[in-house]
Structure formats: structure tokens, C-alpha cells
């Protein structure tokens, strides 16, 4: 994922990208200097070894100086981004652990305030979660809370990301699209 332009501690603007994979490592690279193979030096801007254990199969999200990851079998994780560096450990996490393949978070907000992180749980029935983007320990909503199963939308579906538009959250299901929004 490409990050917005970030200023390092010396005042230099950095153009960075972040990536991660099944090895559980988080990599940050400088897009202006991707480097070439060098047997004596690592040209990675920053590497957090084992930060996303047991591994990541999904895409991250970025909002207001924070990166969000949903690793396979793990909790949602929030990492602070400061002076073009990612915190070496999560600054908050969810209590819910997301089964295979993890979750791909998405953010909705009012500009730079009132951030909500949306995450889909691949269970049966599937569950849509909403968290305070500033503190993932604060779950705002999940579709399993609704009375009489009103918000259930079927069995889980792998590798989907919630989409937010026009005040609604859209989730791909095995046979269609589930739409969540405010009740009358």
C-alpha cells in the first residue's frame, strides 16, 4: 500500500510504501530508492520482523497517521506512524481474533475525525465489526449484536473488504451484497 507523503525526523519528505506477507514481517520501502540487489546491505526503509504473526493474507488500511492490519487468526492491529516510521509494536488491538484468512479493514470518517474501522469476520454466520479507529479495544457495533438475527448476512466469504459509500457499508456475500446503514 502506498502511504501519503511523510516527513521524517530531519524534515525530509519521504515517499513510502508498506507491504507484508505470510512470513508475518512488515516491510516499509522508500519508493524513491527501491534499491537493487546488494549482498552486503538491506535497502528496506524499515522492517518489523514477526509483527503480523502468524502471517497476513489481506490488505492494510491507513488513516490519520495509523496503519491497520488484520492478520490470519489474529486480532486487528493498529500501528502508529510518526516521523516516517511505524511503531515497533501495535498501539491498540481488538479483542476479537479473525479466523482464516484474517480481515481486510476499511475506514470511514468525517474528514480526519470520527474514524470508524470496519472489518469482516469469516465465520458462519459472518460478522461485520465496527471499531473506533483511534482505539481498537472500543468496538462500536457488530452484526451479531442485533436482535432476532436482523443483521445476519450468511456464511463468511474470504478475501473481501467492506466498502463504504453514501453512509452505508457494503459487504460481498456468497450470493450477493449485504448493505448496512442506519435504521429509520
Amount of helix: under 10%
The ordered string of helix (H) and strand (E) elements is EEEEEEEEEEEEEEEEE
CATH C-level label of the domain at 56-180: Mainly Beta
> What percentage of the residues does DSSP assign to strands (E)?
35-45%
Number of strands: 17
Number of helices: 0
What gross morphology would you assign?
Answer: globular
Radius of gyration, CA atoms, in whole angstroms: 17 Å
| CATH architecture descriptor name of the domain at 56-180 | Beta Barrel
Task: Specify the structural class.
Answer: mainly beta
- The average pLDDT is 92
User: Looking at CATH, which topology of the domain at 56-180 would you report?
Assistant: Lipocalin
Q: What does the largest sheet look like?
A: 5 strands, antiparallel
Describe the structure.
With 184 residues, the protein is mainly beta. It has a domain at 56-180: Lipocalin (Beta Barrel), CATH 2.40.128. It contains no helices and 17 strands. The protein has strands at 6-7, 13-14, 16-20, 26-30, 46-48, 61-63, 66-69, 74-82, 85-86, 92-98, 106-110, 113-121, 127-132, 135-142, 163-165, 168-172, 177-180. Strands 6, 7, 8, 9 and 10 form a 5-stranded antiparallel sheet that branches. Strand 11 and strand 12 form a beta hairpin. The chain is globular and about 60 Å long.
Amino acid at each position: 500500500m502506498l502511504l501519503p507523503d511523510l516527513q521524517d525526523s530531519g524534515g525530509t519528505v519521504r515517499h513510502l510504501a508498506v507491504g507484508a506477507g505470510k512470513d508475518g514481517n512488515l516491510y516499509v520501502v522508500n519508493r524513491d530508492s527501491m534499491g537493487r540487489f546488494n549482498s552486503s546491505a538491506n535497502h528496506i526503509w524499515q522492517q518489523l520482523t514477526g509483527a503480523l504473526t502468524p502471517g497476513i493474507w489481506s490488505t492494510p488500511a491507513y488513516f490519520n497517521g495509523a496503519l491497520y492490519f488484520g492478520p490470519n487468526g489474529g486480532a486487528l492491529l493498529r500501528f502508529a506512524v510518526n516521523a516516517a516510521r511505524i511503531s515497533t509494536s501495535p498501539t491498540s488491538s481488538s479483542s476479537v481474533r479473525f479466523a482464516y484468512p484474517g480481515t481486510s479493514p476499511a475506514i470511514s470518517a468525517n474528514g480526519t475525525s470520527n474514524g470508524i474501522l470496519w472489518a469482516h469476520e469469516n465465520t458462519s454466520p459472518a460478522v461485520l465489526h465496527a471499531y473506533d479507529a483511534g482505539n481498537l479495544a472500543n468496538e462500536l457495533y457488530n452484526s451479531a449484536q442485533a436482535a432476532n438475527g436482523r443483521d445476519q448476512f450468511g456464511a463468511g466469504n474470504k478475501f473481501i473488504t467492506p466498502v463504504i459509500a453514501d453512509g452505508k457499508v457494503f459487504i460481498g456475500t456468497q450470493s450477493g451484497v449485504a448493505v448496512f446503514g442506519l435504521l429509520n
